[in-house]
Amino acid sequence: MRRYPSSLTMMRSIRGAIDLGSIMVGVIVIAIFAGIISVSVFAVIPWSQDEAAKQNLMSVADAEAVARTGFADGAPAAYLNSAGLDGAELLDADPDANLVVGTDATGSCWVALSRSGSGDPFFASSKHPKPVGYDTQNECVDVPALFATLHDPNPPVPLVASYADVTFDRSGGGSVAPTVTGPAGAKTFTSTDLPDGVNLNPTTGEITGPPAWRFNAKKVAVGGMHTCAITLTGTVKCWGYNLFGQLGSGITSYMEPLPVDVVGLTDVKDIYLGGMTTCALTSTNGLKCWGLNSDGAVGDGTRINRDLPTDVIGLTSGVKTASFSDSHICAVTTAGALFCWGNGDYGQIGNDDTRRSVTPTPVHNLGSGVSSVAVGGTQSCAVTDAGAALCWGAGNSGQLGDGTTWGRLEPNPVLGLSSGVAEIRAGANFTCARMDTGTVKCWGNNVYGALGDGTTDNKYAPTDVPGLANVASLAGTGASMCAVTTGKDLYCWGGNDIGQVGTGSADASVLTPTLISSNVTTASIGSQHNCAAIDTELECWGAGTIGQLGTQPYADHLAPVDVYRAGFDQTATVTVKSGGQTVQATLRLKLS
């Protein structure tokens, strides 16, 4: 049974012959029902009920042509015949809407609609899928639904959503709401690909950032031109120079200015950086290294560069701590034994040899009783369980602290430090020790003030650093050194030609300890840049042109700047739903 809109019930087609009187009655009834006598372009009722006048529109294109052109002089049959259209089969028509529903030669339903009096099509049947549907008599059955949908006095406006760039300032502020046009009513905003910490209001669509965008870390480590940090969840992220895969992301690239994940590392306990190589201490006390391996610093028995964490031979467990320089590394086991490997040109491996080693090599006479180790550019030093300091390797600037400028191929005592040493740190060619009293002593090259005694004279034996007390930890390499006090104040001194001390200036040297920051929990010093965790939020300073400071735009900074999370200047997709319509809007998140 064919279904019609209630407003068309009196307009149903009458099968069989219909005389002229019936046609006129039909016209009058329709005119009364509609409130007018329609003479518009689709006044089809007079002939839609005339068996002789029925025509067959042979295609959707024919129906669209009729809708666009209309009937001339109120003579639809003559018009259709002149257009070469034979045998109409009109199922129904709405004179007020100028809407015609019928079948084409294939039996599929078609619809033609024209604005009254204008001839311009409001709906062209060729733009909508066919067929509409059939009942058991192979007749169109969705005429009412078509009328209701197509003859809408307020047709839906296509929903459009657009966003400006979402720009966040360095304090975490910044927001934007979408521009949405379309049907009135509640709108729903959803997204599954916003970065961590970016929030979307599902009602207003406003995009906002978290209270702070700063990178949070348990510990930070600085290398020659790259930086790594252990996150609060125990994973590792690195940034900066990556030509040798030292960021551990599985790829090599010139640089990565924002933190990227090191692949496959979770629950990491410590991190150590060399010039172009990186190592991590895992939760199982194993050591993994990656990056430049030309001197065997990765410790895997080869000299092949690695862009992913690689097990160090013989040290997959039982490691207590380690220390890295430009091209050699030493590790202390939980049993107190010391192993070194990598570059050995100056005897810094401590095995009475000057050859490189591509696997961990025992240090002579230190098979037990070692509590910590520190390596510099060409020297290595260790602290024993008894608090004694021992050094070996190059001694040309007095960096071994034995009162001479001689080199040593095996561990050698530091003058006056047979006890009381809590920690030792080594720079390029100088060394410093934190005493268990909280004071600091340094020795070696002092051209840039790295010894912190107010002079530029080299010292061949330990010398007190004035003005420092209650020191809890040391960090140093290159030509500068820093100390963190028990009150969490960070003091730095030494070479400062590119602002690596962090005083806000680029003086060649800072000769005495200078307060740089407060609330510092950990710090790491590189040859050209330094970093510190303020509580858990990370900041860096010094050389930054290769992205090693973790900021954008990347550049040198003379004072500490915040390190920000990755994921900025990227696109995200937001879905907007309204009035039964859905559209996706693409936005770009940027950091100012």
Question: How would you summarize what this structure contains?
Answer:
The chain has 592 residues and is mainly β. Helix content is 7%, strand content 38%.
Question: What is the fold's blueprint, element by element?
Answer:
Layout: H1 20-34, H2 45-48, H3 60-69, H4 76-82, E1 90-94, E2 99-103, E3 109-114, E4 121-124, H5 143-150, E5 160-162, E6 166-168, E7 175-176, E8 179-181, E9 187-190, E10 199-200, E11 207-208, E12 219-222, E13 226-230, E14 236-242, E15 253-261, E16 270-273, E17 277-281, E18 287-291, E19 306-311, E20 319-324, E21 328-333, E22 338-342, E23 357-362, E24 370-375, E25 379-384, E26 389-393, E27 408-413, E28 421-426, E29 430-435, E30 440-444, E31 459-464, E32 471-477, E33 480-485, E34 490-495, E35 509-517, E36 520-525, E37 529-534, E38 537-542, E39 557-562, E40 570-578, E41 581-591
Parallel strand pairs: 6-41
Antiparallel strand pairs: 1-2, 2-3, 3-4, 5-8, 7-11, 9-40, 10-11, 12-13, 13-14, 14-15, 16-17, 17-18, 18-19, 20-21, 21-22, 22-23, 24-25, 25-26, 26-27, 28-29, 29-30, 30-31, 32-33, 33-34, 34-35, 36-37, 37-38, 38-39, 40-41
